[in-house]
Amino acid sequence: MYLALAALAACIVMILGLMTQASAQTANARPEQMAGYVRPNDMGTGALLFPSKEPGYFVEAPRLATDVQIDVNGPIMRTRVTQRFQNPSKGWVEGTYVFPLPDDSAVDTLKMQIGDRFIEGQIKPRQAAKEIYEQAKAEGKKAALLEQQRPNLFTNQVANIGPGETVVVQIEYQSGVRQSNDAFTFRFPMVVAPRYNPQPVVQTVDLDSRSGYAVSDPVPDRQKIEPPVLDPRENARINPVTLTINLKAGFPIGEVTSAFHEIETTTLDQLTRKITLKAGSVPADRDFELSWKAVAGKSPYAGLFRETVDGKTYLLSFVTPPVTATATDKPLRREVVFVIDNSGSMAGPSMEQAKESLALAISRLKPEDRFNVIRFDDTMTVHFPGLVEATPDKREDAISFVRGLTADGGTEMLPALEAALRTQGPVAAGALRQVVFLTDGAIGNEGQLFQEIQNNRGDARVFTVGIGSAPNSHFMTKAAEYGRGTFTLIGSESQVAARMGELFTKLESPVMTDISATFEGAATGDITPNPMPDLYRGEPVVLTAELDGAAPEGKLRIVGKAGDQPWRVEMDIAKAATGEGVAKLWARRKIDDLEASAATIADPATLDRQIETVALAHHLVSRVTSLVAVDATPSRPAGENLTETAVPLNLPAGWDFGKVFGEKSDATEKVDEREASAESQTKLAMLTADRMLAAPTARAAGLIAEANNQVNLPQTATEADKQILIGLMLLAFALAAGSTFVFWRGQIAALVTSGVRRHGR
Fold this sequence. Notes:
Blueprint: H1 2-27, E1 48-51, E2 58-60, E3 63-73, E4 76-86, E5 92-100, E6 106-114, E7 117-120, E8 122-125, H2 126-138, E9 141-150, E10 153-161, E11 166-176, E12 178-180, E13 183-188, E14 201-207, E15 210-216, E16 240-248, E17 253-258, E18 263-269, E19 272-277, E20 282-283, E21 288-294, E22 302-309, E23 312-319, E24 333-341, H3 349-363, E25 370-376, E26 380-382, E27 388-389, H4 392-403, H5 413-422, E28 431-439, H6 446-456, E29 461-467, H7 473-482, E30 487-490, H8 496-507, E31 512-520, E32 526-528, E33 541-548, E34 555-562, E35 565-572, E36 577-578, H9 582-596, H10 604-617, E37 625-634, E38 642-646, H11 657-661, H12 673-681, E39 687-688, H13 689-694, H14 697-710, H15 720-760
Parallel strand pairs: 3-16, 5-38, 22-36, 24-25, 24-28, 28-29, 29-30
Antiparallel strand pairs: 1-2, 1-39, 3-4, 4-11, 5-10, 6-7, 6-11, 8-37, 9-10, 9-37, 12-13, 13-21, 14-15, 16-19, 16-20, 17-21, 18-19, 22-23, 23-33, 25-26, 25-27, 31-34, 32-33, 34-35
Helix pairs in contact: 1-15, 3-4, 3-8, 5-6, 6-7, 9-10
């Protein structure tokens, strides 16, 4: 028995020794031994860190640099975006980057560079592309997946980026130049603004004569469009962008300007300019806008371009009606409902721009006009009980109300739009109802807004004014299109007077209506947009068309009415200039037409098939198609874990982080219910190593604890060995206790027996 106890004691000592050694090995494990995890103290330089489930360990976020080349040829643009994903960590990662593109972009190319090789992406139905990507990711192959989340918002996923590796992904798209009056412009968006996504609503429904509940989520893809956002108060701006523009206007170029960035312009000839950023590179935190004009007297008012693809002819036409065709001396009686966004995302310069713009608009009202003002955040106020006459005292009262607004809270836009369209009473005889919406459009439930405009616009026209450094251009343009109005973008206070002046001219001028296009002496074509929108002063008719045959003849005829005055223009198709990329633009706009017709198509699957047919034929990314590129050779060794991380984004320039995501007096303080979801969804607990090193221990512990509740990364390093040793130790103690109990029970029994014998004697 004593030998058994001695052996058991030796076993316990050995187990304790092994446990101590294992514990020491775990404590001293290097970051590369923890599946790519790191500790703040291991970092030699500042780095963006995602908290992991392994206590005290983090994962470095992929880093991104972007090069942009834009080739402008007349009204057509070809853009190449090169994204360089760098993995600074010691493990294998999958990076996800949410990025914006122009809302009319026809994305047709995805290339992934592996060493000296370029792998061309293939267009596939969305689900098929996703399955190909996931399989390649599981097999350790490098792969890239480009998906459209909104017409102006895309995600790029890149799998199996090795330790220290850089993977290059190129995206190319076709888009168009915008013309208004005598200015030609385009915007290249650089950052996705954080979006307010209303929470699902539970409503009672009737299911087979039984009462039940159904959850209707206004933003079903919220996880896809909520990338992590850096707090600029605590992190340096990241994601540097370089930009080169080759401008071939097709006419003698006069003034070239950029509203928000300093540029350097090189004159190559009378028709051509090369533009670069003066700083070389800039952080991706605001849209880039370029404008150019023709030299005096050389501005074109019409154009026709042609491209032949697969035996079909595609046309792009623009024509600006002469001002005399829309002139009138009869003043318009207007009923204007102004809606202003004063939510948290508007805090700072955006709010000042919006208030100044609205005050200017109210001051321009005439006494015969009627108006009202509605403001909204996550609450709403309708300033007057109903439409009131624009007398001087009412205008002053409304301007005072507007100037007193402050930005805070969420962006519940739908109730305000409903109030503007539904509660202002019928339109007076002979009057024109106009709804002017001033907002940054930072919402995820655009579909609800579009449906409200389509269903309840009535005789009103909706005008959108995009405010700030990164407005949601998709919302602005489509809301104005569905509302038969127009949109205006204001990115700085210096633009308020000029841009609002242009808007006033449009609001106060007659509209060209009943616009249509036909072909004479040529095959009937598929024309987009369909129907043609109304036009406002200075705006051109822009259309694309698909015609059968490689060399059609005949004329394109466009007609319309300005008041009671007819207007018509004809263009000879045979004289159209060559325009590479016209077919892509037609396909993109055809898809837009199909999306807009969703309400008239009973079966959503039918709509999806129609969109898929056009997108696959023209190799375009859409809501139902994606581009996927896969390397044939596996690169991640078997057994190596893969960590999913998101590329963080900058907060748009001028935004107030605290107003958007909520101020916190302590790292562990609970935010209110309204902002809790938005805050967790944007993963505010991302930290930098420098910040962690400087923070007090308690503060750091609180941030780590909070972050672990917000970012769920795969737990690829556990304490299983330690737990097994502890289990063995407990088993050994149980055996020791049992043996001891048996031994002493035998000893007691022997003593009792001995005593009985002595007593019996």
